[in-house]
């Protein structure tokens, strides 16, 4: 019996583990179609930015991905996700540290240990001097950072962030971009980030998706919104805009969004 000397075929590359798989999903609320035909996969180690005009259904989409809304058709399969909503949902009577520590306490962690971890995360977000202050006494930007700290302390591998830095001043936002990039670079993490800031999308994401409605459907409820691929990004997350596509990238995004006004 002869033995084959052929070189065995190369093993196929191993695909990153998907944290989220959405196939043909749609959401209808009160008989009105909001989003439809949503196909989205987010792998471990990947950040996807979603841009679109106000009222096009981006927040509804995040609620679908988080499991807060059931798809009217299609399927959504996802690892447990941490959702950071536009409205911070903080407890105004509690301190910043106790708000940030809430997911740790709910998971059964002793108060002292949870508070220590919350203090560390708040310090990294520039709130070291405000950990004891009641949330009701904090500015909008500070509250948003507390909400971000709470989200990061969930320990969830999949993050769903709805305008996470919208209320933060430009200098602080730049610092927080670095911290968020470092967190997302950890093994096994993935994220979907909704933002109106095209530069922020290009800075943080591996991919940009654009949410639009058919021509003439500018208000939520007129026509269901869909997702489409945005312009390809050069370079890697964290690099300057001119390394990721520059003005040409911004113009292509604006043209795509402007075509749906």
Kindly list the characteristics that best describe this protein.
disordered N terminus; single chain; Rossmann fold; globular; alpha/beta; three-stranded antiparallel beta sheet
Question: Would you state the CATH class of the largest domain?
Answer: Alpha Beta
Please state the average pLDDT score. 86
Strand content: 15-25%
Class computed from helices, strands and strand pairing:
alpha/beta
**Can you name the CATH architecture of the largest domain?**
3-Layer(aba) Sandwich
Uncertain segments are: 1-14
Number of domain units = 2
Q: How far is the N terminus from the C terminus?
A: 72 Å
CATH structural fold name of the largest domain: Rossmann fold
Structure report:
- It is a single chain.
- With 261 residues, the protein is of the alpha/beta class.
- Helix content is 33%, strand content 23%.
- The protein has 2 domains: 18-80 and 157-258, P-loop containing nucleotide triphosphate hydrolases (Rossmann fold), CATH 3.40.50.300; 92-155, no CATH class.
- A 6-stranded mixed beta sheet has the order 5-6-7-3-8-9, with helices on both faces. Strands 2-1-4 form a 3-stranded antiparallel beta sheet, with helices on one face.
Q: Can I get a quick summary?
A:
Helices cover 33% and strands 23% of the residues. It has nine helices and nine strands. It has helices spanning 58-66, 96-100, 102-106, 111-124, 140-152, 170-184, 198-204, 241-244, 246-258, and strands at 18-29, 32-43, 47-51, 73-78, 81-84, 158-162, 190-194, 207-212, 226-229.
Write the layout of secondary structure elements.
Elements: E1 18-29, E2 32-43, E3 47-51, H1 58-66, E4 73-78, E5 81-84, H2 96-100, H3 102-106, H4 111-124, H5 140-152, E6 158-162, H6 170-184, E7 190-194, H7 198-204, E8 207-212, E9 226-229, H8 241-244, H9 246-258
